[in-house]
Design a protein that fits this description.
- This protein is of the alpha+beta class and 167 residues long.
- The protein has two domains: 108 residues, no CATH class; 45 residues.
- Helices cover 46% and strands 22% of the residues.
- β2 and β3 form a beta hairpin.
- α5 crosses α7.
- The chain is elongated.
- The mean pLDDT is 87.
């Protein structure tokens, strides 16, 4: 059963942004060192930079939108926090520009109970749920930047009341 009363979508990446760009940089260094010696690279910086741009594109482009392999769609069901999980079709997650997402599970981990019916209590349940999601997807990077930036500015009790599937 797929719900549409979710309140936030959390992206899941194949690997962290730092690791992705580090791997891209190392791949480029290997490619350049096999093709050109250090003197040629030093004397032709424009050529090296052009190849770097081309390599970035062929490697997979920018991390933020090209390395996402899943999404956790958070929603409330009664006094519980849950998260649908959507992931790419392929079993093996590799660098690719062609992705198709499919519904995987109506809850990624067991639901979290909201014990205290206050904004802080709802936030605590969400944070605990996301912590368990991180453990479940230990080989993936769950991007919580937007959640972290917003969490202290949201009335979570109000969000719970207005987006609750069984409210």
């Amino acid at each position: 059963m797929v719900f549409d009363q979710y309140f936030m979508v959390i992206p899941v990446y194949r690997l962290s942004e730092d690791k992705y760009y580090s791997q891209m940089k190392e791949d480029f260094k290997k490619l350049v060192s096999r093709s050109w010696d250090v003197n040629f690279q030093r004397n032709n910086p424009g050529m090296v930079e052009g190849w770097r741009r081309s390599h970035r594109s062929s490697y997979g482009g920018d991390w933020e939108f090209n390395e996402v392999v899943g999404h956790i769609k958070l929603f409330f069901m009664g006094s519980q926090i849950r998260g649908e999980y959507w992931s790419t079709e392929s079993r093996r997650k590799v660098r690719t520009r062609k992705k198709r997402f499919e519904f995987k599970a109506h809850k990624l981990v067991a639901e979290g109970e909201i014990w205290e019916k206050t904004s802080d209590g709802v936030l605590a349940a969400i944070e605990e749920y996301l912590s368990r999601c991180k453990k479940e997807l230990k080989d993936r990077h769950i991007d919580l930047r937007e959640f972290e930036a917003l969490k202290n500015h949201v009335n979570w009790l109000s969000v719970h009341k207005t987006t609750n599937v069984f409210a």
